[in-house]
Amino acid sequence: MAFPAGGSGIVGPDGKWFVDQCFYEEKIIYADLDLEEVVREKLSLDTAGHYNRPDVFQLMVDDQPKEQIYWRSQNDAAGSGWTASLSDTVPSRPEVSE
Question: What residues make up the domain containing 23?
Fold first, then answer.
């Protein structure tokens, strides 16, 4: 049984063949590409997921602040010693002095 050799081709950003596959021969293949087509195809990509119908797709965002830094007290040997509050966290925007 013989297996095909080669099979090189050029596929465009839309998945269609610019130059069909070439088997069993030595050949240099090339094509003129429209780079704007790459941009158009990227814009058509559904990054939120395919088939995102409102009856089967839902996006939920939790906008509540979360503690990210916990401070441990050195004189709290009995308890866990870990405390957190919004006042203890790093500010989301550092102050800039001019």
Answer: 6-43
Residues 6+ apart with CB under 8 A from 57: 48, 49, 51
For the chain, how many structural domains are there in total?
Answer: 1
Q: Give the pLDDT confidence of 39-88 residue by residue, as tens digits.
A: 888 887 766 666 666 777 778 888 888 877 767 666 655 555 555 555 54
Closest CA to 19 of 27, 11, 55: 11
Q: Which residues contact 54 (CB under 8 A, 6 or more apart)?
A: none
0.90 exceeded by pTM? no
In terms of DSSP H, where are the helices of the chain? 35-43
Rounded CA separation 6/29 (Å)? 12
31 found inside a domain:
yes
Predicted local confidence at residue 10, as pLDDT:
92
